[in-house]
Write a structure and sequence with these properties.
Helix 1 packs antiparallel against helix 2 (44-56) and helix 3 packs across helix 4. The chain has one domain (1-315): Alpha/Beta hydrolase fold, catalytic domain (Rossmann fold), CATH 3.40.50.1820. The protein is of the alpha/beta class. Strands 2-1-3-4-5-6 form a six-stranded parallel β-sheet, with helices on both faces. The chain contains eleven helices and six strands.
Length: 325
């Protein structure tokens, strides 16, 4: 993929945004039409049930994921999650998922533009944000808004083609890194969620870019694959299967010292990447965040504070669990 493919900021995410816009609107039409049909036939309870099923049906799917992760984590080295941890994380993900996938990503992915204003003395290190599978830069909106207010420069990429091989994303990351380098005259901090962390490792490998990075923070990244990947069949998901050939080949090529420059956040309640310790790397600073699910990890205040610390930015005095906003 030529580097010039990354030049237009609105091109990336457009395919996924349109797909999620279409899906969201179809769900709304089904909910309204179904409810109207039953209401017109004097069946208000059926009308209410239709709306509830369409709007909250993802909760059932998420419950299935949490059952799988609870079973997969029984023999894992990560701290064991309690039933309360799992229930709280499930409910948090039930609330977070529609806000991210039905609002922020399809309709608001460009509301927080990249911020590379002219550097001033003592300005924090620039950040490159890399999202994961079936996501776009809208995932980071709450953090991007706060970083803009704090004066932290950043670029948030969109990885496309959505269902393509992970290696195809490396020119996109290279372009973003070059933009931050040019604007700040410094090595950027790279923050990556889920599959984005693998794309960053592939970029480091393809571009021999270790010396160009201040630090790498991965959040819920399946560094050793995830059991959930067995249920999907796109090229990038195939690469995320447990100990896939792609993952093994990447690990063999990586220098042993690379992981020392990584901080890997993982959770025993991650409903996408499990067993939990698959999101860690040997020699990295592996940080466990308890009771937080997969999407929530990219909005968690503990993780955000670590991002600010590595960027050299002032940490807000009052810190709570961040919402999806």
């Amino acid at each position: 993929m030529p580097l010039g493919y990354c030049n237009h900021p609105l091109r990336f995410g457009s395919m996924l945004a349109r797909l999620q816009q279409f899906t969201t609107l179809v769900l709304v039409v089904i909910a309204v039409a179904g409810a109207a049909h039953f209401a017109s036939h004097g069946k208000p309870l059926w009308a209410l049930a239709t709306i509830t099923l369409v709007i909250g049906g993802h909760a059932i799917f998420l419950a299935f994921e949490f059952l799988l992760l609870a079973r997969a984590n029984r023999e894992d080295a990560a701290p064991a999650a309690t039933a309360r941890d799992l229930l709280g994380a499930w409910w948090g993900e039930v609330l977070a998922a529609p806000q991210v996938f039905c609002w922020q990503q399809p309709f608001r992915s460009q509301t927080q533009p990249d911020d590379l204003s002219p550097a001033t003395g003592g300005r924090p290190i620039g950040i490159v944000f890399v999202h994961g599978f079936v996501c776009n830069r809208g995932l980071w909106n709450p953090w991007l808004k706060r970083l803009h207010q704090l004066g932290v420069p950043f670029v948030a990429v969109n990885l496309e083609p959505v269902f393509g091989p992970i290696d195809n994303y490396t020119p996109i990351i290279e372009r973003a890194v070059r933009r931050v380098e040019a604007a700040t005259a410094a090595r950027p901090l790279i923050v990556a969620h889920s599959m984005g962390g693998l794309a960053v490792r592939a970029w480091l490998d393809a571009w021999r870019a270790d010396t160009r990075v201040h630090h790498v923070i991965t959040i819920g990244t399946p560094h050793h694959g995830t059991l959930l990947a067995r249920f999907a069949f796109s090229p990038n998901v195939g690469q995320m299967r447990r100990d896939s050939r792609w993952l093994q080949g990447l690990a063999k090529r990586e220098p042993g010292a690379r992981y020392a420059n990584f901080t890997c956040f993982f959770s025993h309640c991650d409903n996408i990447v499990f067993p939990a310790s698959t999101a860690t790397l040997p020699g990295a600073q592996n940080r466990h965040v308890g009771g937080v699910a997969h999407v929530q990890l990219a909005r968690d205040e503990v993780v955000f504070r670590e991002v600010l610390r590595h960027a050299g930015a002032a940490t807000p005095l009052l810190c709570q669990r961040s919402g999806v906003g």
